[in-house]
């Protein structure tokens, strides 16, 4: 049995690129601004100050156009009133989502994790105080705070007693304002008071470090519908591992946007440690070598054979 | 031509290695931002990011010359960074440039020969760190010889022998972002070098016969070089996305 | 009763405020209001009453420090720089690389083949000044010269970069001749009769054919210390002018190698001391560019291309200010500096730099060079009067 823990569908953390909902252009805005012409074949890479090619933008004028980070709208004062231009402020590949009527920029992925509200992260308890657990989500940054009572069904008496070094799967509740602001985490959904999407202490298993770009890819891939058999985000490594390790009892996985992946195969009895390490290695290799779908399958076969998990 | 390498280092937010083929300088740049600058909170500007530049020579400790070139870089880069974007005000963008290879700088040496390499490494590192920028730029070094010829990217020895040395940084929109010239020259010479710099950076074919010599038409513009380096890195990072298209 | 009524009902506070308060509260708008001419045919006037390309009154005073070999005080408006030049001896026997570095230069065939003898000599001495660090400028900002400078702090980045700028300019302009700094020794010809009379042979520095070769026994090292007593903007122009004036004032005592004592002796006779013969008179002029739109960085406007910007020159949104004072420097980011010299009435640019923005283009720089060459005439007069 393979069970993959999935964060719930969430408008902020799972969408392709954290679309900033504050930048909304009025419906029909681009209709008069951008002329229609031929289609581009290769995805365009934009550098700062490059204009977004007009013919690439979605033409659905019933919804406002959503802009992701790295793009901004500038006005060009001219004699005939002001004109609007979309320009890039970062370098990246232009990605247009016609269905959601969104334009965003895929920038360099290997970046330090900066906490953003509603992101799922894997945090490690550093120490606990009267009201809070002080957790580490990224190295060399101030600790994030996780309330002692922000667990499902937690009260003064039933709260979990987490010790130093234990891991939790949590959501970023707030990041504060200005310099030196504290990041607050929570393990319950604000709406339901339940621990949705597998939030809570992670017992057993092991945590592997991956790049933040890989973590985002894993989250996007896991949020796709199950019946979709095509490789999502070019990732087949997880489904391949799931297929091959099914006989051992499957595995559980949780992905934190802070570049951490928690893997547990406790169902696999004596092969548990080996299987956990195999999964971790496969994910890290895929990340570091930037493997294609074909190579990912080869890697899985190779690693499992090396660890004598599959004959 | 050796292409610059982006995002080479794992720890910083962005990094780039730039090797200038003509002068031989090899610069390793790393950018962290936005980061908190705790010790200097009172010195921070409340409405925008503070840009800090550190230049580390390969063999010695940084001295007065590095302070000077850091000041120049800070003023050029600070103007290009959009320090008011979300998450940047009151924080810092730290740019560290290590001179990893090339001729050693002696005390009192002119820093002009290395300035274009430093500028390129800093720009590529900032792009790699996804620091929001209002524009990109490219920079070039020119020497004017005794006979009045304009030489692009003279080697350090050729630079010492030249009558005047010029560094230009031209933005992606054609602005003159930086000019550093020294030696002995008049304004007409400077204007010729300036035209040459525009054509080298932007890649526009110059109609002027005087300024197009020594270089094959095949040599790409510097803007194009920067763009190619970024495109290569992005295409390799998102190779999985391109496969599925 | 009447007095209590007046204190009970004080005058309502006036809504207007004195210019000095306006200048502090809205510095950008204040300067902009000054610069915007009331009508199009009137020139812009700055808040300090100067025209845009007008420099502050400059005064130069030399020889103020008695213990230095040369000194000068330069005052540009409220910015004051003091410079002292002190010469110290550097024995060639103390230079570890001396024997090594000398050998190849003597054998260097280009020196003899070069048709332009003077030029090759120029390059030669440039090498010696730079390689042996014969010029050592150091600039310090005195405590209290400007608000915000704390005493006891290590040299600020500003002081360090100014030091480097001065050193770099001394090197690129070849201002000081290495020959002025050399102390030669002509070993007596032991075969000749003069050997018995060493006192005369030493003093007379004539070329003796057939004798042993003339050799350099020592160099003068010039320690150029600059102190900014008061900083009200444009520290570089003042510092450079003070260096120039101090070097023009510098007198080196007559020094010779005494073979018997194996040491350098200096004459205390002031009449025997010689002045430095400087190459040219490079003079620095600094500018800053004031942008009319204070909120330009906030506006989400397309930055126009360089060519569009040129076309829109008519609507003036920037002012280039010569010799900015501290108030103006605080409001501008874009800087330009032009160092010019004149030879036979022809202006030669020695150094030109601009950075920190994109408003100053080549047309503006051309104008700045013209302004700088006028400044050269003015400052030359001031330097020669003292």
Walk me through what this model shows.
The complex is a heterotrimer of chains A (311), B (245) and C (386). Chain A contains five helices and 16 strands. Chain A is α+β, with helices and mostly antiparallel strands and 311 residues long. Chain A folds into three domains: 12-106, OB fold (Dihydrolipoamide Acetyltransferase, E2P); 120-202, Nucleic acid-binding proteins (OB fold (Dihydrolipoamide Acetyltransferase, E2P)), CATH 2.40.50; 206-306, Ribosomal Protein S8, Chain: A, domain 1, CATH 3.30.1370. Chain A is globular. The model of chain A is unreliable at 1-24 and 26-41 (pLDDT under 50). By secondary structure, chain B is of the alpha+beta class. Chain B has a single domain (5-244), classed as GHMP Kinase, N-terminal domain (Ribosomal Protein S5, domain 2), CATH 3.30.230.70. Helix content of chain B is 31%, strand content 26%. Chain B has helices spanning 64-80, 115-128, 156-161, 187-202, 222-237, 239-244, and strands at residues 5-6, 14-19, 26-35, 50-56, 92-101, 137-144, 150-152, 164-171, 176-185. The model of chain B is unreliable at 205-218 (pLDDT under 50). Chain C is an alpha+beta fold and 386 residues long. In chain C, 34% of the residues lie in helices and 25% in strands. Chain C contains 13 helices and 14 strands. Chain C has helices at residues 2-8, 19-25, 27-35, 98-107, 109-113, 117-131, 157-173, 178-181, 198-203, 235-249, 306-311, 326-330, 362-385, and strands at 58-62, 70-76, 79-91, 135-141, 182-185, 215-230, 251-252, 255-258, 263-266, 274-275, 283-291, 318-322, 334-343, 346-355. In chain C, strands 1, 2, 3, 4, 5 and 6 form a six-stranded mixed beta sheet that branches. Chain C has a four-stranded antiparallel beta sheet with strand order 12-11-13-14, with helices on both faces. In chain C, β13 and β14 (346-355) form a beta hairpin. At the B-C interface, α1, β9 and α4 of B face α7, α11, β13, β14 and α13 of C. β9 (176-185) of chain B pairs antiparallel with β14 (346-355) of chain C, so a sheet runs across the interface.
- Tell me the strand percentage band of chain C: 25-35%
**Overall SS class of chain A:** alpha+beta
C-alpha-based Rg of chain C, rounded: 28 Å
Large-scale geometry of chain A? globular
**What is the string of helix and strand elements of chain A?**
EHEEEEEEEEEEEEEHHEEHH
Topology, number of strands of chain A: 16
User: How many H/I helical runs of chain A?
Assistant: 5
- The CATH superfamily of the largest domain in chain C is known as GHMP Kinase, N-terminal domain
CATH class descriptor of the largest domain in chain C? Alpha Beta
The CATH architecture of the largest domain in chain A would be 2-Layer Sandwich
């Amino acid at each position: 049995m393979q069970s993959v823990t999935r964060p719930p569908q969430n408008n902020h953390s799972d969408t392709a690129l954290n679309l900033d909902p504050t930048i909304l252009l009025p419906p029909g805005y681009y209709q008069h601004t951008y002329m229609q012409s031929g289609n581009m074949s290769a995805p365009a890479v934009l550098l700062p100050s490059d204009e977004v090619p007009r013919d690439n933008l979605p033409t659905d004028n019933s919804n406002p156009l959503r802009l992701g980070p790295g793009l901004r709208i500038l006005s060009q004062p001219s004699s005939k009133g002001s004109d609007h231009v979309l320009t890039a402020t970062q370098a990246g590949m232009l990605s247009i989502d016609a269905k959601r009527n969104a334009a965003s920029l895929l920038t360099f992925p290997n970046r330090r994790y900066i906490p953003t509200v509603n992101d799922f992260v894997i945090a490690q308890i550093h120490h606990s105080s009267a009201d809070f657990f002080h957790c580490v989500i990224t190295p060399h940054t101030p600790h994030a705070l996780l309330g002692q009572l922000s667990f499902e069904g937690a009260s003064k008496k039933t709260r979990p007693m987490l010790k130093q070094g234990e891991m939790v799967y949590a959501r970023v509740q707030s990041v504060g304002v200005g310099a030196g602001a504290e990041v607050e985490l929570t393990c319950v959904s604000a709406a339901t008071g339940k621990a949705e999407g597998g939030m809570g202490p992670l017992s057993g298993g092991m945590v592997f470090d991956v790049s933040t770009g890989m973590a985002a890819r894993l989250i996007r891939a896991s949020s796709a519908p199950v019946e979709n058999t095509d490789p999502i985000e070019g990732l087949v490594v997880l489904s391949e591992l799931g297929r091959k390790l099914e006989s051992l009892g499957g595995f559980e996985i949780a992905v934190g946007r802070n570049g951490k992946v928690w893997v547990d195969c406790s169902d696999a009895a004596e092969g548990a440690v080996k299987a956990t390490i195999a999964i971790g290695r496969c994910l890290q290799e895929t990340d570091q070598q930037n493997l294609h779908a074909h190579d990912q399958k080869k890697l899985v076969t190779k690693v499992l054979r090396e660890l004598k998990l599959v004959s | 031509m050796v292409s610059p390498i982006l995002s080479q280092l794992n720890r910083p937010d962005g990094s780039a290695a730039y090797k200038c083929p003509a002068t031989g300088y090899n610069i390793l740049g790393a950018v962290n931002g936005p980061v908190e600058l705790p010790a200097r909170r009172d010195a921070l500007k409340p409405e925008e990011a503070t840009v800090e530049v550190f230049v580390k020579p390969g063999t010695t400790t940084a001295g007065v010359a590095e302070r000077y070139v850091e000041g120049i870089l800070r003023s050029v880069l600070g103007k290009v960074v959009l320090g008011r974007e979300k998450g940047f005000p009151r924080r810092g963008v730290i740019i560290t440039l290590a001179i990893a290879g090339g001729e050693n700088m002696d005390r009192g040496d002119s820093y002009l020969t290395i300035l274009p390499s430093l500028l390129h490494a800093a720009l590529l590192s900032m792009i790699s760190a996804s620091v929001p920028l209002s524009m990109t730029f490219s920079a070039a070094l020119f020497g004017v010889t005794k006979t009045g010829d304009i030489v692009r990217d003279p080697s350090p020895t050729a630079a010492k022998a030249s009558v005047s040395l010029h560094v230009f940084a031209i933005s992606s929109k054609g602005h003159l972002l930086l000019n550093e010239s020294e030696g002995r020259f008049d304004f007409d010479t400077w204007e010729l070098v300036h035209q040459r710099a525009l054509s080298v950076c932007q890649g526009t074919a110059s109609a002027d016969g005087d300024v197009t010599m020594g270089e094959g038409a095949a040599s790409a513009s510097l803007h194009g070089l920067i763009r190619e380096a970024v495109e290569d890195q992005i295409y390799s990072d998102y190779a999985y996305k391109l496969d599925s298209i | 009763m009447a007095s209590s009524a007046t204190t009970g009902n004080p005058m309502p506070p006036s809504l207007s405020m004195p210019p000095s308060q306006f200048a502090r509260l809205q510095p950008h708008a204040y300067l902009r209001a000054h610069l915007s001419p009331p009508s199009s045919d009137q020139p812009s006037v700055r808040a300090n009453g100067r025209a845009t390309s007008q420099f502050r009154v400059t005064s130069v005073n030399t020889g103020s420090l008695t213990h230095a070999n040369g000194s000068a005080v330069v005052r540009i408006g409220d910015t004051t720089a003091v410079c002292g030049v002190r010469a110290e001896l550097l024995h060639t026997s103390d230079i570890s690389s001396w024997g090594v570095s000398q050998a190849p230069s003597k054998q260097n065939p280009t020196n003899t083949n070069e048709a332009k003898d003077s030029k090759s000599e120029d390059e030669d001495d440039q090498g010696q000044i730079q390689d042996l660090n014969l010029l050592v400028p150091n600039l310090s900002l005195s405590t209290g010269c400007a608000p915000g400078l704390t005493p006891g702090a290590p040299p600020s980045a500003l002081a360090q970069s100014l030091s480097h700028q001065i050193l770099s300019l001394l090197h690129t302009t070849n201002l000081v001749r290495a020959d002025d700094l050399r102390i030669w020794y002509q070993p007596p010809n032991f075969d000749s009769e003069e050997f018995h009379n060493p006192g005369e042979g030493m003093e007379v520095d004539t070329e003796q054919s057939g004798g042993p070769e003339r050799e350099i026994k020592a160099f003068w090292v010039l320690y150029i210390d600059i102190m900014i007593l008061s900083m009200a903007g444009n520290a570089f122009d003042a510092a450079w002018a003070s260096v120039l004036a101090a070097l023009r004032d510098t007198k080196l005592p007559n020094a010779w190698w005494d073979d018997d004592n194996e040491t350098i002796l200096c004459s205390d006779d002031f009449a025997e001391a010689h002045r430095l013969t400087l190459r040219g008179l490079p003079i620095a002029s600094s500018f800053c560019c004031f942008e009319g739109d204070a909120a330009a960085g906030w506006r989400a406007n397309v930055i126009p291309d360089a060519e569009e910007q040129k076309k829109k020159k008519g609507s003036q949104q920037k002012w280039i200010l010569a010799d900015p004072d501290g108030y103006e420097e605080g409001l501008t980011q874009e800087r330009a500096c032009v160092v010019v010299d004149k030879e036979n009435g022809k202006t030669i640019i020695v150094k030109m730099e601009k950075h920190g923005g994109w408003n100053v283009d080549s047309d503006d720089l051309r104008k700045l060079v013209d302004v700088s060459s006028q400044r050269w005439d003015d400052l030359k007069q001031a330097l020669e009067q003292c």
